[in-house]
Specification:
- It is a single chain.
- The strands form 3 sheets. The protein has a 5-stranded parallel sheet with strand order 11-10-9-12-13, sandwiched between helices.
- Helices cover about 45% and strands about 15% of the residues.
- It has helices at about 15-20, 35-50, 70-85, 95-100, 105-110, 130-140, 170-180, 195-200, 215-225, 240-255, 260-275, 275-285, 295-305, 340-350, 365-370, 395-410, and strands at about 25-30, 55-60, 90-95, 120-125, 155-160, 185-190, 205-210, 230-235, 285-290, 310-315, 335-340, 355-360, 375.
- Helix 3 (about 70-85) packs across helix 5 (about 105-110), helix 6 runs parallel beside helix 9 and helix 10 runs antiparallel to helix 16.
- It has 16 helices and 13 strands.
- It has about 425 residues and is of the alpha/beta class.
- The chain is globular.
- The relative contact order is 0.11.
Length: about 425
Amino acid sequence: MAEIIYEPVPDSKLLGVMRAINGIRDAVAIVHGKSCCHADTLLFNILTGCHDDIRLVGSGIRSQDISVGGYRKLSLAIQSAYQEFNPRLIAVLVTSFTTLMGDDVDGIIKSIKRDVPCEICSFACPGYIGHASNGYEEVLSFLVRYMEGCLPEKGLINIVGFKPDDPHARADLEEIKRMLGTHGVRINSMLSGSSFDEIRTAPKASLNVVISRDGIACARLMEEVFNTPYIVVPYPFGWQGSLKFLEGIADALNISLNQDAILKERAQVKERLQGVYTYLQGIYGLPVAVVGDATRAKAISHFLGDELGLDVRLLCITGGYTQDVDLRSDIDVDELLISKDQFHIEEAIRSKDVSLVFGSTMEKRLCRELGIPLIRIFYPVLDAVSIAHMPYAGFEGVINLTETVINSIIGEG
């Protein structure tokens, strides 16, 4: 048998820091390392983000620079980034190579601060000190030092842990804003997913809403520094997930939901689903696998099993916040697997004899081999785009997800 090489899931601290920084609309990330590190992160940024909003550059370090250090090249990169993008924040992402070189990055930043009138910071991102979730959490907690104390406003919240480069994230955010607005709740800041100034005014919100515990350290720090309370809610997939999302926020804000609006939403969803009732009967009990990050995977599994009646035979958590969390609680799955090993993930999928996989581009090859559909719902999605307004979250997402599932089945062959 020929040797099989499995590409690992991209799970470096560098990638997590990059995703968090790129969520700040007027920030620039500089990868201070060799071109391979810059090229890898740039590729994921381009393929999962907006092509007209690329704010990731490299410092131009080469192997021969190890003898003289990266002072000059990093200084030029910072100056060029400021002149080109006029950012409010520049973040230097220090990779393994420049860490081993012993570059005094903080000293370089301090020496150039007079010539670059914006905030400049650095993050240690060598490959041996953490995963993507660690990098994402570190950036969000770091941002607290820039926040300004102010009086909280009633009905104003921050969303913590939302990643704007997730599949369908832009449409999801619009649907979340629409649902919240129906009940008089407004979003003040997204961490990350806002401008730098919007993040600085995050304490103006009266509540931090943490999506599935991603960014929980940031929320705890804001509670300690600014007395901003927080709650943890699941990603609002499905009718029940969306309703729990709204109810959790309403309870924390001590407000009442607009029941007339909810009844109207329910009637609209019911009416549209009745038009595909026969198809829904046909997919009942369909065996499926869910492979993705903890933020979204458990929530989508609830929707698939509890509302669509699918048989979730495998739930595989590939990343995200899993510490001190009982991922198996209140969910009916045959097998729960927590793994980043693509070989083990694919072997688990094979063993379950599933007819549909909810995953990312990482599962494309296996699904093609098995002749089963793949619904791309988790990061990274490198072989598809989502530019239409088609949210998977919220009440509107119930319709879109159901349509996607049905079409993936009846469209095969």
